[in-house]
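STRUCTURE REQUEST FORM
Protein name: 4-amino-4-deoxy-L-arabinose transferase
Source organism: Nonomuraea wenchangensis
Requested output: structure tokens
Priority: standard
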Amino acid sequence: MESVATAGGRPWLRGGDAVLAAGLVMVAVQLVWKAGLVNRTYFRQDDFMFLARGLENGFTWDYLMRVDYGHLMPGAFAIHWALGRLGGHNDVLAHVLTLGLQAAAGLALLRLLRVLFGPRPAILVPLGFALVTPMTISGLSWWAVVAETLPFQIALPMALASHVLCVRTGRLRHAVAAAAWTASGMVFFVKAPFIPILAFVLTVGWLGGWHGARRLLRVWALYLAVLVPYAVLFLHQLLTTVQLTRQTSPISLPSAEVAAKSVWTLLTGSLIPTSLGGPWRWQPIGEDYALAATPAPLMWASLAVAVAAVAVSVRLRRRAWLAWASLLGYFLLADVAPIMLGRIELLGPDLSGYELRYLSSTAVVVAIVIGLAFIPVAGEQRPWLRPAGPLRLAWAPLAAVVAVSSVWSVAAYADRPLGRNVKSYVETAEAALALVPAGTVVLDTYVPEKVAFPLFFYDYARHSKVVDPAARHHVTWTRRLAGPTTVPRMFDARGRLRPLRLTGTTIPAGAACRPVGATEVRFPIPDPPAGGEQVVQISYLNGEATTLEVRMGLARTSVPAGANLGITYATLDGGAPELALRTVGGGTTCVGEIRVGVPAADETAAAVPPQPVER
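Status: completed
Returned output:
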């Protein structure tokens, strides 16, 4: 085995190292494998909000330091800001960045494993786990998660590798590098403050014990110099940032029952099964995402295998118990605690318990723990408690089963449209806006839920924010129809623009139009609406422009009505058995057909573009 001095003293990338070459090939192969899935993804849900916010804001402190429901991620916001200006919904660039970050994460882990354990073939096992585990797949298919977690998956192993080199060589530059990598992780992900804790456990357990940790007072002081300002900044921003709900981030603890169920579900339904190649089955959330749906028998089988693996390692390997305890502690503090502080009340224990994006970055920690539990650290004295005996090769069939199961689970996740339909809708809508004449009035409705949930994203789920965030198209967006409008349009279910029609009831015109003056004229509604927001479409003939007051029950509004023949619209909240009209400020108008209802795209009218954009 290569000596520790050699491993830490010469560049880690050099020729003639078969293990290194194998690791590089593994990283490259997994990139080719995952590229097929990544290239089929598209922006989804809060991706559109983040891109729109980036285009709305300058590169300012307030923009970067916004805490989004517990997440302080100025680095990710910087990426969204730049991406929006480099082509808006540029999914090709997002895919290139994703694969580049994934490659860097794989190389960073390979470097740590080689520095920590030496260039022995055994390090390819935890590396292979991190490269194939389905734990990361759902996060890899969501751009917002990629921009937040993959930089952390680079920073964590790079920081720990620098820390190991610092302990072994005593050189302060390695400590500075470890602190710098930790700080870079904090720029992207709130779990980065746990890197120094992992470094401390690594030092106490495998790199010199308590005595060795006491010799590193300057190093711990350096970490504190990074952690303390971050903690102060995070807490300040957390308590002052106003969310989309017009409130600051809620901090509340769930009941003990809900908390226990959430922890148990996340552990036994997500973390353990995906560490062994699961979940084998997925629960779709729309067309482009899915939660783990581990079958109960396989969940219990995974738990049994995990217990057996832990028991074997603890029996054979010195301080293996500390490795597993570290993983459990990281899981509880870094994965579970943030969910408990607010999100659990919104999502519930079942939904949050099977949400793998909460665990995607934990795959790196699991890989490191697997190494610590089964592989001697380079230079470690007396690493084994007893000879392995017949168990020496037991890992091989288990690793093969995990690898095959992982490929199966990833293939099962990819067996869905992923981003195809959302991409078709968004690109069709963008094409429609580019084709209609400038000034076209477009009703700014919410996009379909498959694109962005209005319940979560409010105004950022409207078409103007999703398909025209940079206001490049010279259309007139309106949220409520009010006044004369020539052929207002709205989007159909495929993202095409069609003329708008009202689905509801019609008050037909008589043989001639009916004069309306300053005295209110009432029109009975044949099929009165039950309530909610209603649009009134009024056909009129005017000698000169006037203003109409429209009343339905207690709701009333005033809208202009131009000269000559035309149509004006009024939007009111409520329902009533009759509609009342009168002119305001003098004048008389002659009213023809009146329609009352809810706007919808007219499926019988020509669509722009004629066919959706298909990819």
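Reviewer notes: The longest strand covers residues 589-601. Residues 433 and 473 are 6 Å apart (CA to CA).
Form closed.
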